[in-house]
Amino acid sequence: MSQPPRPAGTGTGGEAAPLLQSSQSEDTASTLGPASSSASLRSLSPRRPDSSRRSRATAAAAAARNLSFASAVVSALCAGSVAVFSLYGHIFQERLHYTQFQVNGVAIAASIACYIPVPFLGYLCDRVGPAPLSLLSAVFFGGGYGLAAGLYKRAATSLQTVQQHPGRWAYVAMIFAFVCIGVGTSSMYLSAVATCAKNFGRGKHRGLALAVPIAAYGLSGMWVSQVGSRVFYEKTLPDGGTRGDVDVFRFFLFLAILLVVVGVLGAFGLRIVDESDLIEDAVEELERSGILDSSALLTPGRTERGYGAIDQIERRNPFEDAEGDEGEERARKTWVLNAETQRFLTDHTMWCFALGFLFMIGPGEAFINNLGTVIKTLYPPELRHVGRPTSAATHVSIVGITSTVVRLLTGSLTDLLAPSPQAQHIQLTSSTASLQRQQQKRFTLSRVTFLLFFAFLLSLGLAVLASGAIQDHGDRFWIVSGLIGSGYGAVFSLTPIIITVIWGVENFATNWGIVAMFPALGATMWGLIYSAVYQSGANRSAGSDNQQDNLCYGSQCYASTFWAMAASVWVACALVLWAWKGKNGWVQRGIVV
């Protein structure tokens, strides 16, 4: 149907059109025939302005993603300071006269605080964005490390000449300080990883995009431990120049200032680019699968594109009372995220997978938290001055390096070798045919295979330590720290990648927060078991000095604990294998992983 003629020299919107555009349109119309509508005129007019605008928008979006990625990596590089607890845990025992149970109590409080709040923090991150979470981390880090520094300074001074245990309230306050540090850790880490997952999770290099901030988080323990041992150290040895233990007070103040600055910078640098497009794509996927029966309510008018046969049915938009388009968009986003959360929680394979993650990461967390005291058990008093004992800082660095390398390696290899689903959202329908076509075209290796292999390496490191092969040979301890660091890093890298592949990226922070909560139970359980075994060995140790210092030497301090930890990892492998290939598991449902 033709439209009424417009005055010459006007564009489609009634504004004056350039003469060049008008003449070009008339020439083209005279060549191809008379223009029948304004739509045909628009289709024949030059599109350079629109193309230029789109290219500028694309370039701006790419720049924003890159800036957010850089900010996320910086945040992750600083977020893992809690991993260096072994650097000063034994100093709490020696200077503040904490028992092994009290030292582990502080470490466990930090570990629990790293994991228990993560579901809430993930829910917050998905709905308001990563920037507020980064700012929150600055508050918790500054308060936590500042309080810990003051408490340590006061306690170390008052107990310097008095052999007594710390006061009850001083110890409770130290636990509270490390709870704040743990919450700050999870806030900063989650804001960084969620930013990368949502900005790059729909691309073919999603594994590497997630592995980089996760690897940076593992690397943070290495560089922070080196700074602590090489910059903030005490000159307490006889020559006056040799480095002694870390100066805990100055080290805590440094971390407080650094992490406040990084958290504030992250509040400005971390952002999700084109999040509305991500939600719209998720809506389409859920509509297509039939999960959202009221698709017309979520996206009115979308049925004309073929997503439902309800064109003639009048439906009320439940968001019509929302404050403008932004209010409706927020309501739609909340509805979609809640639907995906419900789907995640009702998937039985998720619970098997989460329990497997618990039984894998719990032993790794307990080993890292107690690495310093484990090393001390390798050197009985009679061997203390034979050679130069290995240090906790060295093996914290080994764990950090191996963890970092393996996280990057697994992220890259899974991008190259693992099969990829056709959709980048939650996998609801069978993708078996798609997977078979991929396998026919190229060699593929499931991400679960990578996970099980590196979990075995983790258990191997625990078993080597439990066997007693390292006792009185601290120079061999790198074997244990290397194997455990590799396995621990791979499990922490592959687990969130698998979550994005199976359950999508738009609700990633909430989903990952739910799964990441489980290791807190494992770290607590194994920390308490290690403390009980260690204290029992200390009580059996001969000599009044050992009794007074609450120190234990020999394999009886740890062997039974680490054998049980190795068995825990083997149970975890069985649970993950069941979720993958068991009854109604991922393979049977045709889920590509």
UniProtKB/TrEMBL annotation:
Keyword presence, Transport: yes
Organism: Diplogelasinospora grovesii
InterPro entries given in the database record: MFS (IPR011701), MFS_trans_sf (IPR036259)
Stored Pfam families: MFS_1
TM helices/strands, residue ranges: 63-89, 101-121, 133-152, 172-196, 208-228, 248-270, 448-471, 477-505, 512-533, 553-580
Main subcellular location: membrane
Ranges where the record places region Disordered: 1-57
Protein localization: Vacuole membrane
Family: Belongs to the major facilitator superfamily.
Name of the protein in question: Probable transporter MCH1
Compositionally skewed regions (Polar residues) per UniProt: 20-33
Keywords from the UniProt entry: Membrane, Transmembrane, Transmembrane helix, Transport, Vacuole
GO molecular function: transmembrane transporter activity
GO CC annotation, single: fungal-type vacuole membrane
Comp. bias (Low complexity): 34-46
Topological relation to the membrane, as annotated: Multi-pass membrane protein
